Amino acid sequence: MSIIFKYISKTLLTFFLGAVFVLSAIFFMQHFIRVFGLAVTYGADLPWVFSMLFKLLPDVLCLTAPMGFQLAILLTLTSMGESGEIMALRASGFSFKEITKPMLIMAVILSGILFYSNNWFTPQNTKEFLDARAEVRTRIGKIKIEPKTFINIGEWSLYADAVDGENMKQVHLVKKADEHALSTKVNAREGKVHLTNKAIFVTLFNGQMQRVSPAEEGEIIAASFDEYQVAFSLFTKKASRSFKPAEMGTPELYAYAQKQEAKAKAEAQTEISMRQVLSFSPIVLLLLSCPIGLNLGRRSNKAWAMLFSLVILFSFYIIMTLGISLGKKFYAFSYFAPLLPVVLGLIVARILWTRKLKK
Fold this sequence. Notes:
single chain; alpha+beta; six-stranded antiparallel beta sheet; 60% helix; elongated
């Protein structure tokens, strides 16, 4: 039995890893385009793009793992059916329970991993992703200094008579958001500008700074300098965004739901139930797929496995989406409506297994 167990487990794991890789690559491509577009718009660098994609990885895997597992089950059973291995195992006295035992063990392990990830790990990464996205949207994306033109940089306006790369001639800085309107001015014969990932540094040479005195009205404070440097943050304002239930761990989300009104409470409770459905979906999909895969026999091929896999997944997620919509709309259904695909899946699985075992 140990040899058969290892063989089925190895075949299933091979198909599972391949399916998850392909499905995750498809989902990641969509996310990569959006994140890369955000980076180009706001001037973020490539390491920022990869860090954002890494934060999305748990969410993508939690979505693709159940799909990949369901597809791997049907591909494994179809492959074994094509080669006559299932028929040989049955003739040797192996029951359906013994044949599917490695798949059930893997389904339980995968559900345990998804349970932890969906309820704790993924929400934390989602929060970090949303925080980083909100922060980068407050960033100055591009600074192009042109001669004889006022350039707005945060609270300041920068003007230069001549510009050659980073070098400037006859530079003027005026603070816009000053307590005393336009009271702070910096003038210099020459200057240089340097852009980093977090700030713009302007270094001025041979100039003068003027400011209206806050203590004595009408009095001007002036000072000359040989070199003066000022830094302008690329982040023009504090990042702000709306709260999403997906970014809270399940215990925190449950506590949050108890303090909300009906609509927000229904949304939070629906999110909690949806996480449990996704966590235990591998077991439900296993119970649905095994009787179908075992029924295909030697006349089947992998195309049939793909077709049945698509039908099962499409039906499962359509019913789950319907349940989520009902849960968010009607508070009374918020805990139970998302569980519809699990309940219906178990009922259909019982019917399929009953028919299979009667043959």
